[in-house]
Amino acid sequence: MSKFKKKKGGDLPPISTASLPDIVFMLLFFFMVATVMRENTLLIQNTLPVANQVEKLDKKNPISYIYMGKPSDNYKKKYGTEARVQLNDKFADVNDVGAFIEAERAALREELIPYLTVSLKVDKEAQMGIVGDVKQELRKVNALKINYTTGVGDALSNIE
Amino acid sequence: MAKRAAPEVNAGSMADIAFLLLIFFLVTTTIEKDSGINRKLPPMEESEEDVVIKQKNIFTISINSRDELLVEEERMELKDLRKAAVEFLDNNGDGSCSFCKGKKDSKSSDNPDKAIISLKNQRETSYAAYIAVQNEVVGAYNELRNRRALELGPQKGFSGMDFVKMQENYKDVRWSGNKDRLKAVIDQIKEEIPQKFSEVIE
Fold this sequence. Notes:
The complex is a heterodimer. Helix content of chain A is 27%, strand content 21%. Chain A has helices at 20-34, 76-79, 96-106, 128-140, and strands at 36-37, 50-51, 55-56, 63-69, 84-87, 90-92, 117-122, 145-149, 151-152.
């Protein structure tokens, strides 16, 4: 009669975690493939505006990045709340842009220099004054190819 | 000799190692934004002789410090800008443009080659507003170029491709068509509808 033993009370069987490493590895590979290493530590707020008539930045050509925006919270005390320029890893003056471009050019092979594109990553709350000043500096050093880097989205949402 | 079973490797900590790596990559990398609006700045040397441009060939857009738009002396909402710009570029006042479908208004631009869009903004204008206007202007040019590409494409053997698609294909290494001929079509359209765009900061 004891052939059909009652199963022992409500003990749940242990959940197998054998496939956990596989899942985590999958995530890991996704992030390794889809992202790139951070190049600069941002000292400023940098929320890019959105636009929908965008072109892809050509990665074959050399690109220099110029960041603009308000200093982030940690630096507000020291640098104020007006939008600033960031070159590489530090705050810079508008006048330093020319020297920065020259330095970027010096690091390139000669035949690539005319193809240098300057990508302007500007916070959407920044004002046009500083952007205009930087563009003027770029004209002075003859770096004329620029790209206003933006996210992809409906441009009308920029102005609320 | 007795066959000894290979000892099993404990894989219990594999998940921890993988998590560690995952978190490292999450922290040190970013998903790069690599799209944007390409522009070419005008070179520094100013030409000495003043070029006389008729007022009717200039389409003036002003943005004030509160991000409001003034287009041709009238207030306008951003969403209407693209249509107004297309109408201006497409106007064909002197009838020399064979593919335009505009109204031929004598008070508006002569032809797309002569039409200039002038953007005035103030130092206090926000960058977001500036980009939004830039986007609409590029959108207007693209609208006309797309229309022209759909007309011109079939004659040159590239049917069903608008201008944006043509440019995309031209850059795409996997695209198998004739790139030289595509480049010729793109250049022709660019020449017929050039982006003439001037900017002033007040």
